[in-house]
Every structure is written in structure tokens, then in C-alpha cells.
Specification:
Helix content: 25-40%
Number of strands: 12
Radius of gyration: 15 Å
Strand content: 25-35%
Distance between the termini: 13 Å
CATH class: Alpha Beta
Structural class: alpha/beta
Strand order of the largest sheet: 2-1-3-4-12-11-10
Shape: globular
CATH topology: Rossmann fold
Mean pLDDT: 93
Length: 191
């Protein structure tokens, strides 16, 4: 069996941490900065960072439309924190020039959990994982609207924090910083 190639959008954020986890789990991780690198990927990770900056960098790098096309075509994707915002159908407090891909029918509010100093960790129950997952929240988005086709896989005090719609999974937190590879392993198992 050939190991899948997981592209990790490498424009901003903790992309190296995601890549290291996938390599440890036996996948081939490729940092994606160009449309050619994206074309070689069997799946994609959109990491945390700053969603408006990532949106602008996607446009400047020529990746915006290729990513949009691949996602619309069913490319499996995992979006974490800012990645969740980019996968959402609506950014409730977004800038007018901010892009989102609309592959998960959720409405999100940016930085809803507060500023950098308000960052925290919480043990959350994730459907199908068994033991609680140590979620790391850093300037995290909040899901305020959930469409009918969205599966909520985990909730925290403020509401849904892990959602899935088809081949797209969106997390409000940073699983790559948790020291627990189970969400990445689950994503790989679904490819």
C-alpha cells in the first residue's frame, strides 16, 4: 500500500508541526506553497495562523483558485483554527476582502475565545476517539451557526469545536500542539 501524500499549506502558521505528525504516522508530508505542490497532494491541511493573512497569501501565491477547485472536487482537508475559518461558509466578523472556501456549512467568529494571553487547554470528548483529547485553543474561532449537513464531532463550553462535512474536517483548536496524534491519525485513516 502506497502512503498518502498530505499537503500542508505552508504560507503561515504551525505547518511544520502538522507535517512532522503526518510523517511520524507514515504518510508523506509535502509543504504546499505553489499550485504544483498542491497538485501532488492526496489531502490538504490548512493550519492555524491569522486567517486574513493566509487569505491574502493564498491570493498572492496563486493558490486561492487551485485550492478552491480541489476542495470543491472533494479533496480531503483538515483545517485547524484559522484553517477552520477558511473552510467555513461564513465569517461573521470577517473583512470584506477575506476569502473563505465554504466547504463546511458553518458560521464562525474570529478570535472569539480572546487574545493570545487568553489561550488555554481543555480536555474535550471527541466522537469516536475514546479518551478525552487535549485541545489547545489560541485566539480560536467560535462556531455560531451549523448547517444541516454538518456533523459536530466535539463541543466545548462555547459550542462546537470540531465539525465535519463530507471530506472536510474543521477544528477550532490546534491538535498539532497537543502532543496527541489521534486526530491526525483519524484523518489519515479516512483517506
Amino acid at each position: 500500500m502506497v502512503a498518502p501524500t498530505v499537503g500542508v499549506l505552508a504560507l503561515q502558521g504551525a505547518f511544520a508541526a502538522h507535517a512532522a505528525i503526518f510523517e511520524r504516522l507514515g504518510a508523506r508530508a509535502v509543504e504546499v506553497r505553489t499550485p504544483g505542490e498542491l497538485a501532488a497532494a492526496d489531502a490538504l491541511v490548512i493550519p492555524g495562523g491569522e486567517s486574513t493573512t493566509i487569505s491574502m497569501l493564498l491570493e498572492r501565491s496563486g493558490l486561492l483558485e487551485p485550492v478552491r477547485d480541489r476542495l470543491r472536487g472533494g479533496l480531503p482537508v483538515l483545517g485547524t483554527c484559522a484553517g477552520m475559518i477558511l473552510l467555513a461558509s461564513e465569517v461573521l466578523d470577517g473583512r470584506p476582502d477575506q476569502h473563505c472556501f465554504g466547504v463546511v456549512d458553518i458560521g464562525v467568529r474570529r478570535n472569539a475565545y480572546g487574545t493570545q494571553v487568553d489561550s488555554f487547554e481543555a480536555s474535550i470528548a471527541v466522537e469516536g476517539l475514546g479518551a478525552p483529547f487535549p485541545a489547545v485553543f489560541i485566539r480560536a474561532p467560535a462556531v455560531e451557526q451549523v448547517g444541516p449537513g454538518v456533523e459536530v464531532l466535539a463541543v466545548a463550553d462555547a459550542g462546537p469545536v470540531l465539525c465535519r462535512s463530507g471530506a472536510a474536517t474543521a477544528a477550532a483548536f490546534h491538535p498539532e500542539l497537543s502532543g496527541d496524534d489521534r486526530l491526525h491519525a483519524r484523518f489519515l485513516s479516512e483517506l
